[in-house]
Every structure is written in C-alpha cells, then in structure tokens.
Amino acid sequence: LESRKPSPKKRFSVCQVCRRCSLDCSHFIQMVFQKAGFQAPYLTTRTMLALSRRRLVRNYHLIDLGKAVDQARVGDLAVYRDHVVLLTKIYPGGYADIIHATGGRDIRAPGQGVQKERMALIANFRGPVLRILRHKALVARLPNAQRSRQKPLSKK
Q1: pTM for this structure?
Q2: Which residues contact 147 (CB under 8 A, 6 or more apart)?
Q3: What is the pLDDT of residues 91-145, one digit of tens each?
Q4: What DSSP state is assigned to residue 71?
Q5: Which stretches does DSSP call E strand in the chain?
Q6: Phi, then psi, of 51 in degrees rounded to 5
Q7: For tag attachment on the chain, is the N or C end more exposed, with fewer CB atoms within 10 Å?
Q8: Residue 146 contacts by C-beta under 8 Å, 6 or more apart in sequence?
C-alpha cells in the first residue's frame, strides 16, 4: 500500500490483507473517528510517525503526546511501527482495552479483522509504542484539569 498509494476506496482491490479483513488499521481508525463526527482524513501509520507535531495537529487534528503512556486516555491512538490501535478503557500500570483492525491467517471473512483486546500493555502491544495521539475534538471534552496537562505544541 505504501508504494502503490491507492485511494482508500481502491485499497481493497490492491491489498490482499484488506480484502480478507475488509480494512486496515488506519482505515478502521478513520472510520471510527468519522462515525464519531470527528474530522479524520485517511492517514497511514508511517505518516503518523513521520509528520511533525505541528503538521499532525494542523492537517489531521491529532495532538502528539509523545510516548507518554501515563497520559493516555480513552479515545487516544497508540501508534506502533505499521499498526495503530484505539484505546477504549484505561487501567492502572499502562494497560488498556483496545480495538483495532488486523489481518492474518485467522481472518476468514470480511469484518473478522476487527478485534478487541483486553488489558493490553500499551507500551509494547505491537513492539514499542512510538506515539500516543489524541484527536483535538477529544481535548475539548476533557475536564479543565486534564486539558491543562496537555503537552504544548513544539515551535519546530
């Protein structure tokens, strides 16, 4: 997908994994955010990791929390090399329930690639966590005390 760069609508005809599970992890996150009413253009995990903090927030409405697992909240994204998951419940000690789209040999029909994992260790669910991202729309819904703890945007 990275080398051919098909549009999201064409990815099912290009990618065998997407054909088997219906969608990839990035497309799944885009669909969830759009259903929630958030602005969410399609964004690959490679791009999530490559963009500057400023461009992430300006172009994609995503606030970079770095690797601060202790700052993660429900609705945040944990980004790994080649994978992204949505945090649905937070537990002490850096654990969370997550939902994500995945492919693999166990996928036998469309839709089976969406999975929920309970009590996943955020810091290394699919290798080391490389970024925690929060959609700007979720920041407005946080209590004032939590909003004030958000990392400021870097000037770079």
Answers
A1: 0.76
A2: 139
A3: 999 999 999 987 655 555 555 578 889 999 999 999 999 999 999 999 876 554 4
A4: G
A5: 62-64, 77-80, 83-91, 95-101, 114-121, 131-135
A6: -75, 150
A7: C
A8: 73
Q: Confidence band (pLDDT; 50, 70, 90) for 12?
A: low
Distance, CA of 56 to CA of 42 (rounded, Å): 12
CA–CA gap between residue 90 and residue 105 (Å, rounded) = 29
Q: Indicate the burial class of 4 (C-beta count within 10 angstroms; 0-12, 13-18, 19 or more).
A: exposed
The token pair that represents 67 in the structure block: 């690797």
Interatomic CA distance for residues 133 and 118, integer angstroms: 20
Length of the chain counted residue by residue: 156
SS3 at position 85: strand
Paired strand residues for 112: none
Token look-up 């958000």 returns 150
Q: Are 126 and 113 in contact (CB under 8 A)?
A: no
